[in-house]
Amino acid sequence: MASIRRSGRGEGAAPALIGGLAVAAVAFLALPPVALALRAPWHAAAAQLSDPAVLDALRLSLVVSTAALALSLAFGAPLAWVLARASLRGLAVVRALVIVPMVLPPVVAGVALLTAFGRRGVAGAALERLGLTLPFSTTGAALAAAFVSAPFLVVALEAGLRSAGRDLEDAAATLGASRARILWTVTLPSVAPSLAAGAALCWARALGEFGATVTFAGNLRGRTQTAPLAVYEELQTGDPDGAVLVSLVLLAISVAVVAALRGRLFAR
User: Fold this and answer.
1) CB-based contacts of 91, cutoff 8 Å, min separation 6
2) Contact, 188 vs 249, CB < 8 A?
3) CA–CA separation, 145 vs 182, rounded Å?
């Protein structure tokens, strides 16, 4: 009876408190994007978004984020495979290095890129002798975006490779399948959802990159000024309407990415 009495009186407040805090959390997270939509100057949307500077920034954002994704796939996918399947000493250190850009302040990431690939950087001088100058270039913007976004692809793909296991691959090998055939017919289909989720998150993170890009590549219109940098410039020059509308475009893209990943991110 005592236990029944406790459950009837004492535990009722906890769900109510938790529910109230959950509602407050949803309101806190939902209010900023809703406020963007409410305060957007819809009457001027066509004129603002057709401005050549805005179109250049949006185009460059797509180019930079897509190039960053390509770099991440080219180098991140093999790295994820090594982290998931190899038995080498020091992999824990490598994994930590992969995760660091995810938690590094973006401006610090830009400074680190300058010290590595700047004209007087550790590798920058050698690259410049080869005729490749990365700072304040579109290539540099793509490199900065890849640096901060590639870990999302690596972490997601490594998790997918670990959960997929090697049983099917071993079975295919015993049946005489070549390594290339196993890769294309067994491994890739089994990790396809993780690869797609990691690629989408990587691309979206690259699309929204600001700090590392402005520090390493600058804010040059038509060359390195991506959409987030254009939003910042419009706020600095006293054009909040333009900043809100470009922000809404980026918000819509972000919502589309989340909607595409809903089965992956919110699976029960």
Assistant:
1) 82, 83
2) no
3) 32
CB atoms < 10 A from the CB of 46, how many?
A: 9
Residue 150 CA to residue 71 CA, distance in Å, equals 8
127-152 pLDDT, tens digit per residue, is: 888 888 899 999 999 999 999 999 99
The one-letter amino acid code at 234 reads E
Quick check: 218 and 136 in contact, CB under 8 A? yes
pTM, full prediction: 0.85
